[in-house]
Specification:
The protein has 157 residues and is an alpha+beta fold. This is DUF669 domain-containing protein.
Amino acid sequence: MMNLKELAQKMLNEGFNPHQTNVDDNGYDNLPDGIYDAVLEDVQFRVNDKGTEWLSLTFSIINEGYENRKYFANYWLTEKQLEQNIKKLWGHAAQVFNVELTVDDIANIETAVVEKLQEALGTHVELELKTSRYKDKRTGEMKEFQNFKLASADIPF
């Protein structure tokens, strides 16, 4: 029988992400692809055991039938995705949250960016989700990844 550490490692190896997986007992998987009304609820800088860093924005969905469901919009700060995700984050800060970030803020993403984005908590946004499928080069199996886009909500509530 495997111990808890082995089980936890096995789950991570199989793609479990505690920051993306909905663990409520209601049996929900990812939110279906589509456009949602959401409210920015939390901003956190995260680091996993492997040292991977990311900025996670927690949104609460307000559409009927999905009330109180959470979506975690993650900006991965891995070497492969760094420039793309910094552009995305910086653009979202300015265009969606009306938060001006400086070069110095970006340099101190774990503190300065988190603090500045805290000012945007409660902002109503339009969250668009679209699932992409890809083949894992290492294992050859098909995997899914849900991408997100953010836009200013047309109608504040």
